[in-house]
Amino acid sequence: MRIRNLIAVVIACLFVLQCISFIDYLNEEEYLLGLMDRVAPRSLPPSDQAIKVVESLKGLPVKDFSALQQDSRYFMLPIFSFLRPMPRQVMEQGGDCADRSRLVIRMLRLHGIGASKWALYTKEMKSVHAVVELEAEAGKMVADPLYGLWFPRPDGGYYDIKELRQSPSILQGRIQTLLREGVRPGSSDLKSYPIDEYTYQYAKSINWEKWAVTWPLYKALSIIMGPSIDNFQRPMLVEAPQLMVMMMAGAIQGGIIIAYFALVRLGGNTRRERVPSHRRPSGIAS
């Protein structure tokens, strides 16, 4: 009985956590929608909206990866700090390329513009940078929220991840053009852009290096899926810490319930095995 009561309390606490997370998620969506409406009117084409959003982040402070190791920004509790800062915290205090990319994605999606984060890898397969690929009016478009980059075609439209993978000269040419014009479109200075490291040649739709367990998973999936694993669809919920917390709480709840019923069944079988054959009900075979 005590175990059952304890399980009920734990499940109830997790349910409360899920409710708090969902309410916070709705409040955050309302905040981001108001921000998006002010920055980029819905009447603009998706590409122009994306450019407006990226430009709005130019004045935000830049925080590097080493600084973020001691970052105190997180959703609700320090235990969730691995889910990274909340969008409001990024808008108020700045962030790195990954933080900005998640913020841009969330904002664009509130105007019905599909977008996803991509990780740029070095040739040594080390994740070093994050950008956004979105659905523009004339195909896909890449935006770098940290350096303020996007890649227009000479004949109209924009280059996507696939094309930037195949032609490194597109990135090089874009940066050289902006440097000649003397503009600084993003928070970080283009003069410091590590052109040999922040390349699109090895871009992947997921940062498989983020957790220790995901890189072996990537290697295993690469054997099964081949090069298509690099284009694997990134789940939307990973951009919202609250949704991740809800999912983790649900997984724990499910695990507890399954474990409890497994133990009950195992205990019942053990008790039946201990009953002497002459004391067993007639319906139980000896």
Word description of this protein:
This protein is α+β, with helices and mostly antiparallel strands and 286 residues long. The chain has one domain. It is 49% helix and 9% strand. It contains 9 helices and 4 strands. It has a 4-stranded antiparallel sheet, with helices on one face. A hairpin with a 4-residue loop joins strand 3 and strand 4. Helix 1 packs antiparallel against helix 9. The radius of gyration is 25 Å and the shape is elongated.
- Average pLDDT confidence is 88
Largest sheet: 4 strands, antiparallel
**Broad shape:** elongated
Tell me roughly what share of residues is in helical segments.
40-55%
Beta content comes to: 5-15%
The end-to-end span amounts to: 30 Å
Write a brief structural summary.
The protein has 286 residues and is an alpha+beta fold. It is 49% helix and 9% strand. The longest helix has 38 residues.
Q: Can you give keywords for this protein?
A:
9% strand; 9 helices; alpha+beta; elongated; four-stranded antiparallel β-sheet; 4 strands; 49% helix; 286 residues
What does the secondary structure layout of this molecule look like, with pairings?
Layout: H1 2-39, H2 46-56, H3 65-68, H4 87-93, H5 97-109, E1 115-121, E2 127-136, E3 139-144, E4 149-150, H6 161-166, H7 168-181, H8 214-225, H9 241-274
Antiparallel strand pairs: 1-2, 2-3, 3-4
Helix pairs in contact: 1-9
